[in-house]
Request: fold
Amino acid sequence: MAGLGLLNKQSLASFLADPAWKIKMLTDEVGIFTEKGGTIMFLLTSKGMVVVDSQFPDTAPHLIGELKKKNTKPFRYLINTHHHGDHTGGNIAFKGVAEHVVAHINSKANQLKVAAEQKTAANKFHVPDITFGAEGWNKKVGKERISAHYFGPGHTDGDSMIHFEHANIVHMGDLLFNRRHPFIDRTAGASIANWIIVLDKALSTFDAKTQFVCGHSGAGYDVVAQPNDLRAFGDYLGNLLKFTEGEIRLGKTKDEIIKAKEIPGSPEWKGDGIERPLAAAYAELAVK
Ligand SMILES: [Zn+2]
Ligand SMILES: [Zn+2]
Reply:
């Protein structure tokens, strides 16, 4: 590794000792953990801890270790926003640690389906024991009231938003990609058209002061977003459908359409991966 020779022993040691993960407190009780994969949100109270999403089997133990240093009460609930491996892979680290794992019923079904397809050994995954449907779910832990909202298919068919009402912070899971091209998982029932409605429902359910934690953000953009960021992402999804529909009407093929460099009207969405939402939009419009 070039340049390391210039570092003295002490700075090399501190460079290597720097943890790869970051914890940021948003309030006295609520914080986020980032290392690899989807952002994790957590709640620390005198009545116990709550964690939303779990990243991967190798990163979840880092989170658990850090939170145990901050709070000696048990992990009451691990909540999954949706089934993807960068949000539920670490569930296994919570087996025997979290009292309950909670998710929308479709998220649990998707977790089981993926585990069966990938022939994951039974001791390598850990699915929810509490599920909910369109009615959502809620629970009081300490002074915090936690509510899960389900507004139908978006990024998958099993995404819910987890609201810490007292702190007024919502974990959006992958329902919000802040200035980053989204993954749209049609194999798990995603719908771009309904995703736009889901974001509108979020804006009418929560308020102007709500903060939104998102799974992923683009370079230079925060994983903690504001209502205007939800509006901008809803506009992006609308522009994605409108652009793709126009290209189809002009007689362009799928291969030609996915070569676009930008979604007209949403230039803030930059970087790699534009072909994935374009292909998903093409597929969604083609089946109509
Ligand atoms: Zn994700
Ligand atoms: Zn996802």
